């Protein structure tokens, strides 16, 4: 049973489940956590959080899912609220902390995926250029907020609670298909996204979280391995995976498709080892779609049958699209030199995480 506290309201828990024996999985984040799909322009049940919950429930009987993900969420709004409504809570973080207080010692898993919107939603122009000064400013604020989020969640948990945060895939790699200028921009984007992911990972590790390597699961830095993509010819493996696992190459929308969410769920599941899990049971074996091997790959076509739960419909990038704004929704990618501006996030991440721990100890 999934307990949804975000819009449109609170879903009733399964009354047949013995509350005394129940344990909980709380998922927080942006459109990755809420399963937004551009083909239907709404959140769906193909989210990695839903797929991960199915796997976790196999080894944790009685597990319930408190699903808090909010499309368009930033680290600031996750703390302050304003994007989605939560009954008796001012924000997504507040809702999570209250749920943890309501079920002391019963929260087995907490996952978080947030931060992409903080930088790119605000600092990418309609033409696809990136404001370096804005990026530096936003990256430091993001690091501070993420440290506050992770620190508060970690403090509210117990030694039996497992916490996992994630990095992000690089949707700008889809620019590779646009010819020489796009290929150069795709390479440059790897520096940008890599630096941002390094900062995000540092925050999580500094606050006691494990890190789901979503960027690695998408082979984000593999420009060496060549894969044959029908209609595009030989392309790097990272480009092939972005085309295979997201909508970036077909709808100019960087959200993961159902297969992409399955890969993300697998990255989280890999961090939730069986010997660390509360209760008995085998570790779930995450299913992952076949990765494109050397010499073959498939780009989802516009006419392809959508995966279960995604529905069908025209693509419409709206304000609630979350990651639709983190990647360039137009065909123009981030320009050269932008990646270096994000490097400051790494130092900021550690600084703010340590500062928070010091203040809590005093």
Give an overview of the whole structure.
- Helices cover 40% and strands 12% of the residues.
- It has 13 helices and ten strands.
- A hairpin with a 3-residue loop joins strand 9 and strand 10.
- Helix 4 packs parallel to helix 6 and helix 6 runs parallel beside helix 7.
- The longest helix has 27 residues.
- It starts with a strand and ends with a helix.
**Distance between the ends:** 40 Å
Q: How many helices in DSSP terms?
A: 13
- Average pLDDT taken over every residue: 75
Q: What structural class do helix, strand and pairing data support?
A: alpha/beta
Number of strands: 10
Kindly state the percentage of residues in helix: 40-55%
Major pleated sheet: 6 strands, parallel
Beta fraction: 5-15%
Please mark out the parts with pLDDT under 50 across 5 or more consecutive residues, or reply none. 4-17, 277-362
**Widest sheet: strand ordering:** 1-5-2-6-7-8
Shape summary:
globular
| Radius of gyration over C-alpha positions, nearest whole angstrom | 19 Å
Provide key terms for this protein:
362 residues, six-stranded parallel sheet, two-stranded antiparallel ribbon, 13 helices, disordered C terminus
Could you give a short description of this structure?
The chain has helices at about 30-35, 50-60, 75-80, 90-100, 115-125, 130-155, 180-205, 215, 235-245, 260-270, 325, 340, 345-360; strands at about 1-5, 25-30, 35, 40-45, 65, 105-115, 160-165, 210, 225-230, 235. The chain has about 350 residues and is α/β, with parallel strands linked by helices.
